[in-house]
# Entry
Amino acid sequence: MTIHQNLIAGEWVGSDATKNINPSNTGDVVGEYARGSVEDTKAAIAAAKAAFPSWSRSGILERHAILRKTADEILARRDEIGRLLSREEGKTLAEGIGETVRAGQIFDFFAGECLRLAGELLPSVRPNIGVEITREPVGVVGVITPWNFPIAIPAWKIAPALCYGNTVVFKPAELVPGCSWAIVDILVRAGLPKGVLNLVMGKGSVVGQTMLDSPDVHAVTFTGSTGTGKRVATASVEHNRKYQLEMGGKNPFVVLDDADLNVAVEAAVNSAFFSTGQRCTASSRIIVTEAIHDRFVAAAGERLKSVVIDDALKAGTHIGPVVDETQLKQDTDYIEIGRQEGAKLAFGGELLKRDTPGFYLQPALFTEATNDMRISREEIFGPVAAVIRVKDYEEALAVANDTPFGLSSGIATTSLKHATHFKRNAEAGMVMVNLPTAGVDFHVPFGGRKGSSYGSREQGKNANEFYTTIKTAYTLA
Ligand code: NDP
# Structure
């Protein structure tokens, strides 16, 4: 099998390889991908540093053309790349293709942003002096990504980094290197000069850590677990480096007595279980008021019976497998913890056998949960959700906000008063009314607050806050 190599200073290098395994069929090797070393990572950082002076001064049309060409190729190859994504990560083909399209749209958006770079011109408080406020690239950006969105998250970090004139060292999650390799290959063929983008696949503890320890990495954008995020923060403070963290969630979805039951059930089931619950914006706490509680639980149970869990690539599959054995164990451990804590497993939670060996788990819905249980406080990151019964809207809001996290928050209601109050008072970066907590647009800010995020927002035009630094220049007229 050919090894997909790392890209360092414009050369494809590396012979040590890791197998990329299909979680729907563990006998299927998706490909072999290079495993970078400390030396590889240092060489990649040096290459990005050397490429910075020229790339940071490159013309906006050059950057626009490269990002635009990349967008076009990703979109043209959506079926093939989407299939690769589903094969390596386990989300359904529709979800894999959807995520690939989103990555293409993100490159397209930032191709446009290259042409919209702007500054401000102000009069000084002193006569005859003008003040210019401009944005300049930060330098070498370290991009560290998780396994659950193998193409969208790399796209929403790499596209703005390049758009604003930074150079990049990119370390994707070891579990899903396929889509990352594909977009780097596309960017290089689209005309990116040598060293501007370097790909170092391999272990976080080796490649990621070397990036964090380097004084030549001027900014790190990270999405992943809270534990690794804290490492990024500590190391970045040490180097006085800019950093941005998107981490875990324990997103609430509130269902009020006046909700449209169908809307509430669809949004809750989608939030909790689609993409196998492996979304940072997934809802794992479904907070339901008294009068609708029993009807909601019955309808959600019925809805879950119609959900097909199978090979991600099979037509008709609604939910694919869990990503790997470690994550599957974490999910089943939490199901056991929920039982022991006294919550009632109302639906699912069983391991499933399918035609091929894979990590299949039936979505698990707990009822009679309380907000102080571990299943309500800790991120599980799988198809496991708990229904928490509350008296009224006020209690629902209090429970929704009683969490160390603050990424996304949802409500199902037909009351304008409650929807408006919830939008204003939910302690989260994103709020959804009568919509799933997951599923966001690519052209608007993405991010959270409290323990979920740190730093400025990703995506949309607000991305420039992280990928640029402001300069204020004064000129005597
Ligand atoms: P991890 O934190 O384990 O890994 C994230 C990335 O960090 C991977 O590339 C990993 O490499 C790397 N890494 C690991 N150790 C180090 C280190 N010492 N130094 C530098 N980099 C390191 O998270 P997961 O991949 O398991 O992703 C799941 C988590 O991501 C969940 O908690 C989820 O909530 C969160 N997430 C948050 C999102 C958000 O926007 N808020 C979106 C998506 C996910 P390797 O793979 O080689 O270990």
About this structure: The two ends are 66 Å apart (CA to CA).
